[in-house]
Structure formats: C-alpha cells, structure tokens
Amino acid sequence: xxxxxxxxxxxxxxxxxxxxxxxxxxxxxxxxxxxxxxxxxxxxxxxxxxxxxxxxxxxxxxxxxxxxxxxxxxxxxxxxxxxxxxxxxxxxxxxxxxxxxxxxxxxxxxxxxxxxxxxxxxxxxxx
Length: 127
Fold this sequence. Notes:
Blueprint: E1 8-18, H1 24-29, E2 31-40, H2 44-49, H3 58-69, H4 76-90, E3 96-104, E4 114-122
Antiparallel strand pairs: 1-2, 2-3, 3-4
Helix pairs in contact: 3-4
C-alpha cells in the first residue's frame, strides 16, 4: 500500500514579454520574463480516477499568470504576488504556491540569465 503525502502541479519556464521595471524606460520598452509555478494540490483523486475534473487545470494556471504579467509593475515582487493571489482567488482548493519570476537579462551592466524573486505562499483557507 502507498500513501500520497504531497502532490504538485508545475508549469515550468513560461515566457512572457511584459513591461515591469523601476526605470521608466523598462516600463516603456518592456523585456522578456520567465515564470515558473509549483502549485500544491491534493492530486490523489485525479491519480486514482484519471478524470480531468479532479485536477488543477493547467491552461487556467497559465491564463491567470498571463493576465497578471500583462499588468505593469515596478517590482517583480508585486507581479509575483498578484499572480499568486489571482490563482488562489480563482482556485481556492490550492494549498500552496511556489512562484519564481525572473527578468531575463536585466539592464544592470553585466551579462546574466536573469534576476529573479521567489515567493512561497500558503493558502490559509486550506490549513
């Protein structure tokens, strides 16, 4: 016998062109961003029944993320927070969210893949 101790749905490295940034030029011209989500949800029923109604809709997670990415923010922290809040508001059964939002090649005078924030949030309604 096996016991499911935790389960997650992940959307990895979603790419968006958006207008986030502190500097006016960043908000005007926009940049490339990458978002990864890890959403904690009890997937036992979906695993046992093979029924799509018992899982988290991946397309819904993507669309909620995309909608928030289209709204400019000065800070990545704000954009990531809004994405997480939107997901919990639309999918209240979600237990927790891990989100990483990266600005690809940020304008800091050096070459890098990106500068990122990572948030770990727990839905207090599911505790």
